Amino acid sequence: MSRLRPKVVLWWGVGLVAGSVVFSYGLTGISAAVFSGGPGGSATSLDQTMLGILVTLVQAANGSAPFIGAALIGASTVMFYIAKNLVPIMPSEAGATSGKRAAGDD
């Protein structure tokens, strides 16, 4: 049985959207404090370069997370709809109608 259920997908989507918003606001304050050199010290050019690369990678991941979250929310909506409207076919019904032809089909 698959663990990919509509509720799980929905909560992953909501978590990604909410987490990216919180992370975005937190990252802005943290990066402003770190780029200023901190209290009483200054960062070297290597520190600034490494931090710049790290912040760029984190911002790229954070920029795509809300879109992935929204896609997961949409996918869970489709999964709910399909699960609601899906009518299972019993094996006895499928076998009874697949090989037989109607009398007027000749």
Can you describe what's shown?
- With 106 residues, the chain is mainly α.
- The chain has one domain.
- The protein has helices spanning 6-35, 45-85, 91-98.
Order of helices and strands: HHH
Largest sheet, in brief, is: none
Which term fits the overall shape? rod-shaped
Strand elements, count = 0
**Which ranges are low-confidence, i.e. pLDDT below 50, for 5 or more consecutive residues?**
none
- Count of the domains: 1
Structural class: mainly alpha
Estimate what percentage of residues fall within beta strands: under 5%
Q: What is the distance, rounded to the nearest whole angstrom, between the alpha carbons of the first and last residues?
A: 43 Å
Task: Provide the residue-averaged pLDDT.
Answer: 77
Number of helices: 3
Radius of gyration: 26 Å
Helix content: over 70%
Topology:
Layout: H1 6-35, H2 45-85, H3 91-98
Helix pairs in contact: 1-2
Short description:
By secondary structure, the protein is mainly α. The protein has one domain. 75% of the residues lie in helices and 0% in strands.
